[in-house]
Each structure stands twice: as structure tokens, then as C-alpha cells.
Amino acid sequence: MTTTTSTRVLTLPHGQVRVHERGPPSAPAVVLLHGWMMTGAVFDDVIPALSAPDRHVVWLDQRGTVGAADGYGIADYGGDVIAVLDALEVERAVLVGHSMGGQVALWLGATHPERVAGICALNPVPLSGLMLPEAAASLFASSAGDAHKQRMILQMATVSLSPASLQGLLEVAGAVEPACIVGALKAFVAGSDVDVGLITAPTLVLSTDDPFLPAPFLQRSVVDAIAGARLQHLPGAGHYPTVEKPTETAAVINDFLRSLSPATSPSPQQPEQRQRI
Predict the structure, then answer these.
(1) Residues ≥6 apart with Cβ < 8 Å to 79
(2) Mean of the per-residue pLDDT values of the chain
(3) Stated pTM of the model
(4) Could you say which DSSP state residue 166 is in?
(5) Is the torsion defined by CA of 96, 101, 102, 107 positive or negative?
(6) How would you list the strands of the sheet with 15-22, edge to edge?
(7) Distance (Å, whole) CA 135 – CA 129
(8) How confident is the model at residue 100 (pLDDT cuts 50, 70, 90)?
(9) Which domains does the chain have, with CATH numbers?
(10) CA pair distance 195, 31, nearest whole angstrom
(11) Residue 46: what are its φ and ψ, rounded to 5°?
């Protein structure tokens, strides 16, 4: 198994994206998209279990986490992902998006179906946006550069986060540009007017005991609107299942990847290798 990670920074027209890769570039691609206030480090605990000799695993530190960016709309984030796929010469990929990263994955599935072989959305923010309770909205909006408030947010959103993992996430959040914290918050709250019903790729939504995005809400706002989509519930985790329950979350993702048929496999380059991801 290829466990070496290569990392590079791509300079795009409106910002920079840090790209991490494992596995052969010619293998079927799986792209991991992080959410608000985080970087690709939120996937660190699941990446070893997702890595395989016949899989190209890519995870991003998206705009605003590497340096300043021009614009933080959902379409801006989605455009960056397409630019990264083009730079890596990846025609189609399975997208695994967490939180706002799930929202971006849904936007890509609706607007660029030819590039998306499947969507695994972990506690996704609905594509239409998310109205936060007034107290939470005020806390989130004023949290940029404030470790105390970021700690409060993480503690509110999780149910089984260890002290060490909490500290790790705080360090990640503390390195994100304050402008990104503010801009990305506005982006995920506003969402997009793109119709999520346009998604044709196989779609799995993972719900947890997330206090902000409970299972019934995700069923109504995401799953029911996408033909063939299904919901899978993982108890005992909050908003950060990749950190709170990494073994179980990786198993869900791997099961989804294995479920994809040859017709929906990420890479069209080598058909004989596309029976399973």
C-alpha cells in the first residue's frame, strides 16, 4: 500500500489551495472536502483506512486556509475543486465532503455531473443554506481568531471528542485566516439556489447525533430531494465523525466506495481497474 503523502500548493485565479495526495495518480480518485473553520487535517484519522494501492486519495486545504482569497461563495469553493481536478488530470472523482464540504460536494454534483462519480456527504450543510439559531449565529460570526469561542463551538457541536482531539481541532482552527472564518460562514448560511435535485450521482448522506444537523433534518433537506440518495446513521458521534468515530466513519466511506458500479467509477482511463474502488 502506498502510504507516502505528496503535498503542493496550487495558485488559482482567486486564491490558493493546498493539495495532499496518496496513491497512484492514474487510479480512481476520491477527493475529501473539509468544512468551515477547518482544513483537510479533519480527515487525518480516516486517511490511513481509505488509502489503497488502487485508489488515488486527494484531500484539500481549501481557499482561505492557505492564504487570503477573493470570495468565499459556494460556487467559489466548487470552482476551486474543478480547477484542482483539472490540474491533477482527474476526469471524474468520488467526493467525500464534511459539513460545508458536503455542501460544496452537493453543488458540484448538481452543476458538474460529468465530473462527479459519487457523493458521500458527512453531516452536510444543505445546499440551500442553513439558518443558525440566533445565539449560535452570533457566536460563530465573532469566533475568528478567538480560541475560547472556537472551543465553545466545538464543544457544542460534538458528543464524544477527546481532550486531545479537541486541542488538535483548536490548533487547526486557529491557523485559518480570520477572513475565511467570516466569509465561509456567510457562504454556508446563504447556500446556493442551485437545485439539489439535479444530482444524478450515487449519494450517501451520513448523519450522527449532531445537535446542529440531526438525522430527520438531513433526511428532509438533503436526502429526499436527491433521486436514489440514502441516509445512514452513525450514533455516538457529533458534528466531527472523522475525529470522534474515525474507524466507524472510514468503514462507512469504504463501504460506499465499494458499492459503486463500473458505470459510476471515478476514472474512465483503465476499465479493467474500475470494477471496485
Answers:
(1) none
(2) 92
(3) 0.93
(4) H
(5) negative
(6) 6-12, 15-22, 56-61, 29-33, 93-98, 116-122, 203-207, 230-233
(7) 18
(8) very high
(9) 6-273 (3.40.50.1820)
(10) 22
(11) -105, -15
